[in-house]
Write a structure and sequence with these properties.
The protein is of the alpha/beta class. The chain is 39% helix and 20% strand. It has 3 domains: 6-24 and 377-487, Diaminopimelate Epimerase, Chain A, domain 1 (Roll), CATH 3.10.310; 48-80 and 493-602, OB fold (Dihydrolipoamide Acetyltransferase, E2P) (Beta Barrel), CATH 2.40.50.460; 93-354, inorganic pyrophosphatase (n-terminal core) (Alpha-Beta Complex), CATH 3.90.1640.30. A 7-stranded mixed β-sheet has the order 2-1-9-10-11-13-12, with helices on both faces. It has a 5-stranded parallel β-sheet with strand order 5-4-6-7-8, sandwiched between helices.
Amino acid sequence: MVVTVIADRRHGTEPGLSSARSHSISPDRILNSRAPRPRWSWPPTVDAVAADLLTAALGVPRPVANLLVRRGYDTPERAERFLQPNLDALIDPFRMRDMEIAVARVEQAIAAGEPIAVYGDYDVDGITATALLVRYLRWRGANASYYIPHRLEEGYGVSLEGMRALVERGVKLVVTCDCGVTAVEEVRAAREAGMDVIVSDHHEPGPELPAAVAILNPKRVDSGYPDLNLAAVGVAFKLCEALERSAGRNRDKLWFALDLVALGTVADLVPVTGENRALIHYGLDVLGRTRNPGLKALLERTELAGQRPSSWQVGFVLAPRINAIGRMDAAERGVALLLTDEPDEANSIADELERINTTRQETDRQLLDEALKILDESYDPERDRAIVLAGDEWHPGVIGIVASRIVERFHRPTIVISIDRDGTGRGSARSVAGFHLLNALRECEQHLDAYGGHRHAAGLAIRRESISRFRDAFLGVARDQIAPEQLVPSLTIDAAVRLEEVDARLYLALARFGPFGPGNPEPVLAIGGVAPRGYPRIVGDNHLKMIVAGDGRTLDTIGFNLGHLLEEMDLNRGTLTIACRLRENDFQGRSTLQGRVIDVQPDTAGEPAHG
């Protein structure tokens, strides 16, 4: 089992809960460690007749037709609907339970001039949902304000403190965004204080629903809504859509808000399927030419200004800048950025977010270094099937990021806990495929003050004196439920091709599978029978750069953070297969195809060469 170590910045790092150790471990092995090489999962054969039909009907290359069939788009009609998302196919918002009630109550508040408050969450999904709804309500002439809890002072979700603050403002109607479906006590208190509450959320409901005027949540057992995967900003959009319908208008005026919808939906890592796929697809178009001063200011501080960003760029370049404000400070500034119509104010807040994001990056790097040093004293990959770390006064805003990075490095479920001066611990947990994190925490709940989340990520509250017992219980669950093969990452190959098939036509056809994300990953190609032309080299910060040749063709490739593969490749023993994604690389005004390498293996295992 893993030794839980309490890291105390005031007194150095000490094995505060246990100092048992099976053997000494070289620090260099941990600090320079990397995730195990992935196990490749090769694509299954497909129905050749269905693939032939798609090739003929759609004019796509055969590997693309095979991939469409594998992903369930096995007829020309299904494939066309997938490849060309359509906003006209959005689901009627009134199919969601309580939507009519919610619309009637909001319309009543607008007509009477009642103060309305949107109660959001501090992550990107909650911030964009709040901004979207407040913008819409104000456009309708409503007296609308907002409230975002402070992550470090209030924690997640609707709080009694927050509800009291809204009572003092004279608010009569509260609409939650990205929270509230489990706030039974808080909603009861609000109603007793004379406020009505509409819950707009997308999280799993608890055993008891709050006594709200309406609860809009596609995950309600009785919601009646066919798409369960909307983000919170998607649910807020459906409420706006229903309000427009009730006012006798079509949805055209709402398309301007799809930039916020795309940003929040991508950032929350919900499946990019169904309605989400259409909302993101068109939202990225709107984001590329956004009229929102706050988003424009933020884009100008990245390399994304003036272009249609990809979902990857939104998730890893734009969203972290907004997320940082909620992790490190008051997330209300993020909402202010997205609500302002003044360019000067937008630029000022965007500069503030840039500074805070830089601080966030420095903080999580420092905490990751500290965590790795603790693992030097305790971690044994042959023994440990999970990792639990705790530290005094670790910044709770970045422990989730650090947990994710430890999972990437060691491929073990990981929990990182920050302990306050009063002994209260707040933890963030991240998992690996096949290990249901929330269920595992449920088996250890006797040691926890609170917990919540889902299969892949969760949060918890715990007292310092309970951490050791919790650690033993959690690691026991991991030991019982995680098979050795689950500790090795899997790389799914979507198509095995020869280099002669890799051209602009293939790239453009694969690009139509976007936007990419959970439920719709970017296709991975295995290109076999290639050999490096010249000698591969390391560029930048440990990036593997090489040109591969085969079938009379060449392809420029780069593998970010894969410099270590150069030591492992035997360039004198035949050809290679590279696993990569295709990208367009612009350099000095010239655009060429580039393979973004994920892994490399020798052509010796007899895997399929085509398909």
